[in-house]
Amino acid sequence: MARADGDGAPAGGRFPLLLTASIDRPILFFGGKGGVGKTTMATRAALELADAGHKTLLVSTDPAHSTSDILQCDLGPKPRPVVADCWAMEIDPEQEADDYIAAVKERIREAAPPRLLTEVERQVDIARVSPGAVEAALFDRFTRILEEEGAEYDRIVFDTAPTGQTLRLLSLPELMTAWMSGLIKRRQKVGALAKMWRNVAGSETDDREHEDPILNALEERRGRFHRARQILIDSDRTGFVFVVIPERLPIWETETAVAALAKHDVPVAAVIVNQILPKAEAGEGTEGFLAGRRERESTYLARIRENLGDWPLLGVRLQESDPVGVDALRRIRAEVLGGTE
Where would a tag sit more exposed on the chain, N or C end, judged by fewer CB atoms within 10 A? Predict the structure, then answer.
């Protein structure tokens, strides 16, 4: 793949955002540090996929809800058509947590003894405000999207929250599966003891009358998380696209995030370097503010190629104005920076 010119500017021709077949996968996650333009890049990618004839769903899990602003339309928790072959939706993590807790309480009311119901519900309310509750509820919704919308759409593009929250979200399948396996074992022991006491008491009731709805719910959720995990680590189906700008902190955070994803076997598809300065104009000179910025940018681009060059590297120039609206988003083009194809 072509390298950058000496001034750090991308080399080669101009392309739409998804440059290679290795990036275009059925499920794409766009993430990065806040403010680097990941929502813009995710939305641009979704439009490009739709323009290519793929029925595409853009899902925003970022609490900032910038997707509505960029597309200039009102989005909510259900898919809404944006342009031909492209639908979009925004998920509110806090609302997902509230809905999930309400569903848990409903299942508890069906299974818990009335004398314990008030205390059990109090414990559930405490769990709602505990660390990780929002991520767990969000991932529960995420797994449902993969299973339900995954069969309906050719492509799903996720615009994720800033890096730290996204990494916690993507690490949940392993953690939650192990945790739920422990809960299931304990629940099975309780069920076995109950069955033993029924036998001692000489009960002749059918075991089907004593089915455990909580155990069934735990096993169903563990199975769903396991299937989601298999999708996440399948490099033929899933890819994570990091968006970064040529600045020290976003680069450092991206390097750390790439290493974290590797620990969880989540495949990286590409790195998009956004907001690259335009080339120097004739007669501009080699001194002054812009010249200094370009020199520093060249150093950062070299670091990106060195530390993140194992994946396709795409560069996007700094836009003259905010790319708001479908037409402005479609004008965004990427250029080859380096890395692998």
Answer: C
> For residue 106, what are its two tokens?
């409903």
**Per-domain boundaries in the chain:** 26-98+128-276
CATH number for the domain whose boundaries are 26-98+128-276: 3.40.50.300
Cα–Cα distance, 273 to 334 (Å, whole number): 9
The radius of gyration of the chain from alpha carbons, rounded to an integer in Å, stands at 24
**Six token digits for residue 250:** 């976003």
- Predicted TM-score of the model (pTM): 0.78
**Does the pLDDT at position 26 exceed 80?**
yes
Three-class secondary structure of residue 313 per DSSP: strand
Separation between Cα atoms, residue 215 and residue 245, nearest integer Å: 47
Concatenated DSSP letters for 248-261?
HHHHHHHHHHHHHH
Say how far residue 5 (Cα) sits from the centre of its chain: 33
CA atoms in the 13 A half-sphere facing the CB of 71: 28
Cβ neighbours for 129, distance < 8 A, ≥ 6 positions apart: none
Residue with tokens 């010249």: 291
Give the separation between CA 45 and CA 39, rounded to whole angstroms: 10
The pLDDT tens digits for 267-326 are: 999 999 999 988 766 556 566 677 788 889 899 999 999 999 888 899 999 888 888 999
